[in-house]
Design a protein that fits this description.
By secondary structure, chain A is of the alpha+beta class. Chain A is 24% helix and 43% strand. The N and C termini of chain A lie far apart (66 Å). Chain A has one domain. In chain A, 29% of the residues are buried. Chain B contains three helices and nine strands, in the order αβββββββαββα. The longest helix of chain B has 21 residues. Chain B is α+β, with helices and mostly antiparallel strands. A nine-stranded antiparallel beta sheet of chain B has the order 1-2-3-4-7-6-5-8-9. In chain B, 25% of the residues are buried. In chain B, β8 and β9 form a beta hairpin. Chain B is globular, with a radius of gyration of 22 Å. Classes of the chains: A alpha+beta, B alpha+beta. At the A-B interface, β2 and α2 of A face β1, β2 and β3 of B.
Chain lengths: 105, 181
């Protein structure tokens, strides 16, 4: 009986954890994540424009959006990229966002 | 012998209180501005990006508008990029903010128009002087927006509650930018 309970607990925990909204980040917290991180830098000079693109995940069940560099650059009409940063947030594994910021001109 | 059962009040449980405080945290810190902008130091000044402001709508025509603002501290003008969602394609000429008796207008240039589910996503770019942006968001009453396209125009409004919240954040960001200039 004890083995069965342990097995049920592990199975339940695995099922619960598999349904968490996880987000790509160099550091992440189980309860809360709010981390900015670098993606890329180029040799191009100065930035005058900033573009943003975002994708979201709910409970790890549904994830939607376009957080590509292409989408972020397009949103601000950027043709020469200076650098790219990312911002990852997650709350209790319930709701997570991944945002890409492209700087350029 | 009376069997006294101690009634547990679920809302009084310490864990519930801690959890509630955690959930309330974003509301308690509603005036924090660091989540609403990014800044990047460039050779010719600091580049500020004020993240997307949502809330402008035209309910009868089922259209909505959101915008973000980019400002380089060495210049006088700010770029306002906006996304206009509508079920019809429109070639937008210009955009204006109406605050009080003042109307601030700017020509809009197209970035792209794409399909977004059943609507059309119009992405346009406009330039406003930084002092005009400052003035618009100082307005206590919600500033209206008007889009001009193909000899027509459309007014979009924002609720007082949303304006109060968003304009306060913008005012604080603008104050910070001015302090650094």
């Amino acid at each position: 009986m004890k083995k069965l309970k342990t097995f049920a607990f592990i199975a339940g925990a695995a099922l619960f954890m598999s349904s968490c909204a996880t987000v790509s980040s160099p550091l992440s917290g189980v309860i809360f994540t709010d981390v900015k991180s670098p993606i890329a830098a180029t040799g191009n000079a100065n930035s005058t424009k900033v573009g943003k693109a975002e994708a979201t995940s709910i409970l790890g069940i549904a994830a939607t959006g376009d957080a590509s560099i292409e989408a972020a650059a397009k949103s601000a009409g950027i043709t020469k990229i200076h650098h790219v940063d990312a911002h990852s947030t997650s709350i209790l594994g319930v709701y997570a966002t991944y945002t890409v910021y492209v700087y350029g001109e | 012998m009376v069997n006294k059962k101690i009634k547990r009040v679920p809302f009084g449980h310490p864990l519930f209180i801690v959890f509630s405080l955690f959930l309330l945290q974003p509301n308690l810190q509603a005036q924090k501005i660091d989540k609403h902008y990014t800044s990047s130091i460039q050779e010719n000044g600091t580049l500020y990006f004020i993240k997307t402001i949502e809330g402008y709508k035209n309910a009868p025509k089922k259209t909505s508008l959101s915008f973000d603002i980019t400002y380089l501290s060495s210049t006088d003008s700010a770029i306002l990029n906006f996304t206009y969602l509508s079920n019809q394609i429109s070639q937008i000429d210009s955009i204006s903010f109406i605050h009080g008796n003042t109307s601030t207008n700017s020509v809009s240039s197209k970035l792209f128009i794409e399909a977004e589910k059943l609507n059309w996503e119009h992405r346009y770019s406009s330039k406003f002087s930084f002092s005009d942006i400052d003035l618009i968001f100082k307005s206590e009453s919600p500033a209206k927006m008007r889009l001009f396209y193909e000899n027509e125009s459309m007014e979009l409004v924002i609720s007082e509650k949303t304006w109060s919240k968003k304009s306060e954040i913008l005012r604080r960001i603008i104050s910070m930018i001015k302090a650094n200039n």
